[in-house]
């Protein structure tokens, strides 16, 4: 199969097709590339969401549903949504036995849910791949109950100059080679590097979240700012 190479135009069908192709080895490759930090970032995201039994939570860009399974462990009802059928199929294969996870194919800019359905919404490493991220933030607000919470975990800009230089070198030169050695579409990880380099820094994203209508917006860096955990709340009615 010819590797699918997305670009910064972020055409939804091309990006979705790219993720379809890497789905099977996605988690393994991520663990290798992040030196195991992906598990720490997932745990930090779950703590920030703070899922409670009986809540309904949307995990958007759920991928293979590793994050959904972590959220569901506390008894919440989790909707694992993604625009990649291949990722969702892999998620069902791994976590379909969990009775409190539902898998739904969804476009982040046109969510197939009613207003105010979810107690919490979260998105990890997916907002960067959306063609209209500001529209996605508004859609997440729409489907969240008043007073509900949002957690966005996304690759970001390390504030330290020296570490930022090393990180960019690693992404550009090392990361695609590791992906190819792991038997994954290396071109997809070329795109990953480009999309991270093109993505706004923490403060700019926080501004986008406020513009979308969220309140109590704050963020904290993880792993020296490789990723940033953004938190916000929907205003009470």
Automatic annotation (TrEMBL):
Catalytic activity: a 2-demethylmenaquinol + S-adenosyl-L-methionine = a menaquinol + S-adenosyl-L-homocysteine + H(+)
InterPro entries: SAM-dependent_MTases_sf, UbiE/COQ5_MeTrFase
Pathway: Quinol/quinone metabolism; menaquinone biosynthesis; menaquinol from 1,4-dihydroxy-2-naphthoate: step 2/2
Example GO BP: methylation
Keywords, sorted A to Z: Menaquinone biosynthesis, Methyltransferase, S-adenosyl-L-methionine, Transferase
Pfam families cross-referenced by the UniProt entry: Ubie_methyltran
One annotated GO molecular function: methyltransferase activity
Organism of provenance: Microbacterium commune
Binding positions (S-adenosyl-L-methionine): 64, 82, 107-108, 124
Family assignment from sequence similarity: Belongs to the class I-like SAM-binding methyltransferase superfamily. MenG/UbiE family.
Record function comment: Methyltransferase required for the conversion of demethylmenaquinol (DMKH2) to menaquinol (MKH2).
Protein name listed in UniProt: Demethylmenaquinone methyltransferase
């Amino acid at each position: 199969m010819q590797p699918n190479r997305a670009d910064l135009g972020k055409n939804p069908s091309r990006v979705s097709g790219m993720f379809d192709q890497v789905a099977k080895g996605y988690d393994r490759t991520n663990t290798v590339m992040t030196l195991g930090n992906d598990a720490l970032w997932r745990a930090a995201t779950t703590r920030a969401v703070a899922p409670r039994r009986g809540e309904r939570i949307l995990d958007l860009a759920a991928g293979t549903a590793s994050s959904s399974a972590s959220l569901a462990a506390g008894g919440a009802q989790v909707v694992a949504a993604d625009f990649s059928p291949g990722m969702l199929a892999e998620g069902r294969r791994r976590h379909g036995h969990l009775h409190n996870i539902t898998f739904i194919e969804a476009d982040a800019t046109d969510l197939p849910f009613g207003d105010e359905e979810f107690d919490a919404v979260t998105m990890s490493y997916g907002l960067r791949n959306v063609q209209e991220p500001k529209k996605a933030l508004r859609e997440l607000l729409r489907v969240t109950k008043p007073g509900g919470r949002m957690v966005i975990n996304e690759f970001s800009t390390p504030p330290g100059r020296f570490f930022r230089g090393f990180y960019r070198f690693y992404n550009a030169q090392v990361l695609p080679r590791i992906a190819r050695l792991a038997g994954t579409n290396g071109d997809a990880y070329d795109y990953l590097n480009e999309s991270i380099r093109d993505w706004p820094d923490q403060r700019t994203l926080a501004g986008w979240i406020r513009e979308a209508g969220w309140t109590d917006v704050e963020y904290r860096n993880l792993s020296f700012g490789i990723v940033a955990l953004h938190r916000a709340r929907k205003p009470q009615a």
